[in-house]
Amino acid sequence: MLSIIPLLCALFYPNVGTLLSYVGALSGFVIIYCLPVMVYLKQKRLEITDPLLAEAIAHNEFKVQNNIEADKSPQLVINDRFLKRGIINTRRAQEQKEQMMTRYRL
C-alpha cells in the first residue's frame, strides 16, 4: 500500500520532480522555521504554567507512565527525588512568575 501511492503519482503525473520540489520546499520550511518556534513557545508556556515540571524536563528527571487503558495518552511523572529537592525551588519559581506577571497587570 505504501508503494502504490508514489507509483500512481508517477504514472499519472509525469513531472514528478516538480511535485517533489514543492513538497520538499514546504516540508523544509516547516522543519527549519516553524517547528523550532513552536517548540520554544511550548517550552515557555510550560515554564509559566508548571515551573516544576519544566525544570524536571530540563534536567531529565521525569518518567513516562503508560496507562493500561488504550484511550489515554502516556503521562509525565516527576521523580520523587527531584520532587523532594524541588519543593524549595518551587517557591522561588513562583516568586519569579509573580515578578514576570506584575508588568502585565493594570
What is the secondary structure topology, with strand pairs?
Elements: H1 4-12, H2 16-49, H3 51-58, E1 62-65, E2 75-78, H4 80-102
Antiparallel strand pairs: 1-2
Question: Would you write up a description of this structure?
Answer:
The chain is 70% helix and 8% strand. By secondary structure, it is mainly alpha-helical. The chain folds into 2 domains: 15-49; 52-106, no CATH class. Strands 1-2 form a two-stranded antiparallel sheet. The radius of gyration is 23 Å and the shape is elongated. The mean pLDDT is 79.
Short description:
This protein is mostly helical and 106 residues long. It has 4 helices and 2 strands.
Low-confidence stretches: none
Helix-strand sequence: HHHEEH
Structural class: mainly alpha
How many domains comprise the coordinates?
2
Q: Describe the main β-sheet briefly.
A: 2 strands, antiparallel
Residues in helices, as a percent range: 55-70%
What order do the strands of the largest sheet run in, or round the barrel if closed?
1-2
Estimated share of beta-strand residues = 5-15%
Shape: elongated
Number of DSSP-assigned strands? 2
Report the total helices: 4
Give the C-alpha Rg.
23 Å
* Mean pLDDT over all positions: 79
**In angstroms, what separates the terminal alpha carbons?**
59 Å
